[in-house]
Specification:
12% strand; alpha/beta; two-stranded antiparallel ribbon; 39% helix; TIM Barrel; 9 strands
Length: 318
């Protein structure tokens, strides 16, 4: 992972806006509607090349493929893995529940999510390779080499997608970790920095565990980090970054768990770099925490602001 003592290197969290025609095709995929696969593949290839070129032109040091071919940072697993064909659960976000009129106005009161209703395994490994091939070509065309690619962490899948198949939560997240390891390893072997998206470490506190004592929630965090560490055991720490997220959505966020409560277990995660949002007023002060704690010498922090992006489809989570 490149570092600099001359200036602050620039990067972002991975997802970038799609063109209207591509977004419409991805919405159809997310809704289970038929699309012309050849057209979608060609358009995804073009979109990745375009978004990488624009990042390079803007001066972004560490670019991404913009998640151009994915229906969302988490929902894309439904197209690649078996076991997530179950009915959708509707969840009211804890912070918006206190402001129902505003929540209704901004459309943030609830969101649909699938559930795990069968054995988890790969059904479309080619999609991973297709993303990698598109990215390699796009980077060559833009003359860039320092790049990252995102992937859903075991914890965010286990936390935000209900388990209705496996005998225990432990068995569920263990299976997710074993299957997703293939995607993580493939991203690393292709020469990219792997970014693990981990809203489960922040956002799920006020989505799923609002009434749970912090001490009990932190046990969930520890479990999820252990699964992440197991799944990435063959990837060097300096080829990974972890994105800690409290939710990329308009909302009051009055129940967000403070970084202070999360930092100890989060620093046990294997990825060298820790990315976290800092623009939300609930977290704009979090930088001060690092004046009080001793950041391990083998860790890097990537503080920044988080911009709200348009969701790709009805199953997007943020």
């Amino acid at each position: 992972m490149n570092r600099s003592t001359d200036r602050i290197l620039t990067t972002h969290v991975g997802s970038l806006p799609r063109h209207d025609d591509l977004r419409e095709m991805l919405q159809a995929v997310a809704a289970g509607e038929p699309v012309d696969e050849a057209v979608l593949a060609a358009r995804s290839t073009e979109a990745v090349a375009d978004v990488v070129r624009k990042q390079a032109a803007a001066g972004i040091d560490i670019v991404s493929d913009g998640e151009q071919s994915k229906t969302g940072y988490l929902p894309y697993i439904q197209q690649r893995l078996t076991g997530f064909e179950g009915g959708h659960r509707i969840s009211v976000r804890g912070d918006w529940a206190a402001f129902p009129e505003a929540g209704k106005k901004f459309g943030q009161t609830a969101g649909g999510r699938p559930c795990c209703n069968g054995p988890i395994d790969w059904k479309d490994r080619a999609a991973v390779q297709g993303d990698l091939d598109n990215y390699v070509t796009a980077l060559a065309g833009a003359g860039r080499t320092d790049a990252f690619m995102t992937a859903a962490s075991p914890g965010v899948i286990a936390t935000l997608v209900d388990n209705e198949h496996y005998a225990s939560d432990e068995e569920y997240i263990a299976r997710i970790a074993d299957v997703m390891k293939e995607e993580y390893d493939a991203i690393y072997k292709a020469g990219f920095i792997l970014q693990l998206d981990c809203p489960d470490l922040g956002m799920s506190r006020h989505w799923q565990y609002l009434d749970t004592p912090t001490s009990e929630f932190l046990k969930v965090v520890e479990t999820n980090i252990a699964a992440l560490n197991h799944a990435t055991r063959d990837i060097p720490a300096d080829r990974m970054r972890l994105h800690l997220c409290w939710g990329n959505y308009v909302g009051p966020h009055q129940f967000d768990i403070p970084m202070r409560d999360l930092i100890a277990p989060v620093l046990k995660a294997r990825p060298q770099a820790l990315s976290f949002e800092g623009a939300n007023p609930r977290h704009a002060h979090e930088w001060a925490l690092f004046k009080e704690i001793n950041l391990p010498e083998d860790k890097i922090i990537l503080p920044g602001r988080r911009l709200r992006n348009r969701p790709v489809g009805p199953r997007s989570l943020g």
